[in-house]
Amino acid sequence: MAMASPRERSLLLSLAALLLLASASASASDDDLDYLIDNADDIPANDPDGWLQEGSPDDDDDLFHHHQEEAFDESHVFLLSASNFSDFLASHRHVMVEFYAPWCAHCQALAPDYAAAAADLAPLSHEVALAKVDATEDTDLAQKYHVQGFPTILFFIDGVPKDYTGPRTREAIVSWINKKLGPGVHNITTVDEAEKILTGEDKALLAFLHSLSGAHSNEISAASRLEDAVNFYQTSNPDVAKLFHIDPAANRPTLVLLKKQEDDKLTFYDGQFKASAIADFVSANKLPSVITLTQETAPSIFDNPIKKQACLIILLFVVANESVKFLPSFKEAAKSFKGKLLFVFVERDNEEVGGPVANYFGITGQETTVLAYTGNEDARKFFLDGEMSVENIKVIVEICPCTVPD
Ligand SMILES: *[C@@H]1O[C@H](CO)[C@@H](O)[C@H](O)[C@H]1NC(C)=O
Ligand SMILES: *[C@@H]1O[C@H](CO)[C@@H](O)[C@H](O)[C@H]1NC(C)=O
Ligand SMILES: *[C@@H]1O[C@H](CO)[C@@H](O)[C@H](O)[C@H]1NC(C)=O
């Protein structure tokens, strides 16, 4: 589960807004960027001028434009409240929930599309439901799910929420949900198929099971729907397992995450065989050991489940022409804290990303800086004194009150 705390989300949003400002004209067709643009002018729910107050700047817009409210059929959208929210989620495996405010113009604009998407999906009513919650009425629910802006759209799979950050149109919502309801996990039955996947994909998850259907397969399949960036495969063929470096005689189920680009290509799973735990494992381990900060990687850095256990992000700020000098030791250190801390490389003199982010952290000048950042409620930062080394990072980890799992 990749639920961000309110502090993380606001950090993410401010970094996102900052990156957006820095490159307003760059790659506008990018999905991630579209999301940032779509949400950049949403009213923050914690904005005292927006939250419980009647009226907002958007209302003035509406008065100005005198839109005619078109009638639309909202009969397939379930209105939920604190009294029936948990029961509803318990009785529906997949539920999309829109947290809205009655005065929010983005919510009003979404309403006809949301209603139409609900109608399109109504024939699948046993599998998926679209619902809405008035966040100004049910403030406790909104707080529980860290609603920070309107509308906030979450997709619950077995009660586990995931942000919907796609375009707010009927077509986009329907196709995104259909993908979530699809098979999710693909079968590999032959060595040929396995070889194709091994040559074709940078990242993949393989489950080695006794059977391609049943309880274990269902958990993998549910986990796959919580994860957008990695394809999930399952096999019961020992020869296929062998190609993925799984001992054919291993106990089943065995799960391995393959990352071709990394030095450490294989990560085996040893947690509980439950969808949410498996999805957390993939989310925490799918990133390279050192992540280069870009607009695309920012969300995965600041909204990463590793931070639930070890709240530290280690950021290396270095100018591009000096990175060859510092990156190797940074990568070496990252290996020792794999899956526990996030290591992020920030190109200090990159104007779009590095510059604004350095300013955000109060770093001036061009000298190489290593910063540890807690990124949670207390948002503390520690500057590394002395050389970049595993020992010195251990010192910071000891100063930081976070627990580092073994
Ligand atoms: C949930 O409760 C609200 C009011 O408490 C009610 O208006 C709504 O119809 C209920 N929704 C469902 C799906 O039962
Ligand atoms: C994978 O194989 C199982 C067992 O034969 C089958 O039930 C399932 O539909 C298959 N999945 C896909 C995506 O083809
Ligand atoms: C990197 O660039 C800066 C400024 O352009 C220069 O002062 C410095 O000497 C360069 N460093 C290397 C290692 O080339």
TrEMBL record:
UniProt EC number: 5.3.4.1
Stored Pfam families: Thioredoxin, Thioredoxin_6
Signal peptide: 1-28
Keywords noted in UniProt: Disulfide bond, Endoplasmic reticulum, Isomerase, Redox-active center, Repeat, Signal
Subcellular location: Endoplasmic reticulum lumen
PROSITE patterns listed in its UniProt record: THIOREDOXIN_1, THIOREDOXIN_2
The organism's place on the tree of life at top rank: Eukaryota
Keyword Zinc-finger: no
Transmembrane segments: none
A GO CC term attached to the entry: endoplasmic reticulum lumen
One function term, GO molecular function aspect: protein disulfide isomerase activity
Domain Thioredoxin: 52-182
Family membership: Belongs to the protein disulfide isomerase family.
Name of the protein this chain belongs to: protein disulfide-isomerase
Organism the protein comes from: Leersia perrieri
Organism classification: Eukaryota, Viridiplantae, Streptophyta, Embryophyta, Tracheophyta
